[in-house]
Amino acid sequence: MSFKTERLTWGIGGKTVLDAVSLEARPGEMLGLLGPNGSGKTSLLRLLAGLKQPQSGRVLLDRTDLRTIPRRAVAQRVAFVEQHATTNANLKVVDVVKLGRFPHRSLFSGWSRADEEAVDGALEKAGMTAKRNDFWHSLSGGEKQRAHIARALAQTPKELILDEPTNHLDIQHQIALLKLVSELAVTSITALHDLNHAAMFCDRLVVLKQGRIVATGTPGEVLTEELLRTVFSVEARVEVSPHHARPHIHYLR
Ligand SMILES: Nc1ncnc2c1ncn2[C@@H]1O[C@H](COP(=O)(O)OP(=O)(O)OP(=O)(O)O)[C@@H](O)[C@H]1O
């Protein structure tokens, strides 16, 4: 087991945003989190990362209640790239990525070869090696997003939480990022809006509607024409792609 939630409930201002959400991310899988705008994806990811506390229910990390695990121990294994991640200081890209090593370092340890290798590897995987010495403010939106991904990878997490990570990325980098995440030896939970990308790369999908899970399973099990109509309010035809054998959605005009 990796992440598991048990009847997680959270709300704000009298509104229930997440209603008894129970899910499990299996070790090593890429779990896609889908749902229309406002369905609760970001709220759920923030609960999983321990940035919000549930009003009832709990998050388990390898069978241990997340609330009982020290923050530093969580940070050593869980990396989270938020939807609107910002970095204010005008640091170089490499310095931002180095921040990912922070949870692994003690007060007395120097910068190690392992730290250096983690940073170099993360920059490479995120396609940011050529920009390592560029200043943050000189980056495009997509490059900033990739630098945040690199920082998360430098953390060498066992669990990776990504909130719409392909936002701002051109199509080449969207595909490259999703392929990278699907091939990493980590458990990942990724909120996505592009259902065809989710179908292509995720092992399993969880679909939220108004804070409740309405479907869980493989892309082939979940992405039905009926679900597209009732959850996403679109008419579509779903075929098995002859190219990658996953569902492919044709939206109808
Ligand atoms: N801090 C907050 N204050 C008020 N309302 C909030 C807060 N956080 C979440 N909500 C509300 O909870 C609902 C779910 O929001 P959330 O951001 O989790 O949805 P989402 O599925 O990630 O949406 P999107 O696809 O648009 O990013 C929304 O109606 C949102 O307005």
Write structural notes for this entry.
- The protein has 253 residues and is of the alpha/beta class.
- The chain folds into 2 domains: 1-77 and 157-222, 3-Layer(aba) Sandwich (Rossmann fold); 90-156, no CATH class.
- 30% of the residues lie in helices and 27% in strands.
- It is built from 9 helices and 12 strands.
- The strands form 3 sheets. The chain has a 6-stranded mixed sheet with strand order 6-7-8-3-9-10, with helices on both faces. A 4-stranded antiparallel sheet has the order 2-1-4-5, with helices on one face. A two-stranded antiparallel sheet has the order 11-12.
- A hairpin with a 2-residue loop joins strand 4 (56-61) and strand 5.
- Helix 4 (113-125) runs antiparallel to helix 5 (141-154).
- The longest helix has 14 residues, at 141-154.
- The radius of gyration is 18 Å and the shape is globular.
- The termini are far apart.
- The relative contact order is 0.16.
- Keywords: ATP-binding, Nucleotide-binding, Plasmid, Transport.
- This is Histidinol phosphatase.
- Pfam families: ABC_tran.
- Belongs to the ABC transporter superfamily.
- Residues 3-235 form the ABC transporter domain.
Ligands bound to this protein structure:
adenosine-5'-triphosphate
Q: Report the count of strand segments.
A: 12
Number of domains as seen in the coordinates = 2
Briefly, what CATH class of the largest domain?
Alpha Beta
Instruction: Please state the second-level CATH architecture of the largest domain.
Output: 3-Layer(aba) Sandwich
Question: What order do the strands of the largest sheet run in, or round the barrel if closed?
Answer: 6-7-8-3-9-10
CATH fold name of the largest domain: Rossmann fold
Reading the helices and strands in chain order gives: EEEHEEHEHHHEHEHEEHHEE
Q: Gap between N and C termini, in Å?
A: 42 Å
Annotated CATH homologous superfamily of the largest domain: P-loop containing nucleotide triphosphate hydrolases
Query: Which stretches are poorly predicted, pLDDT < 50 over at least 5 residues?
Result: none
Shape: globular
InterPro entries: AAA+_ATPase (IPR003593), ABC_transporter-like_ATP-bd (IPR003439), P-loop_NTPase (IPR027417)
GO molecular function, one term: ATP hydrolysis activity
Organism: Azospirillum humicireducens
Keywords: ATP-binding, Nucleotide-binding, Plasmid, Transport
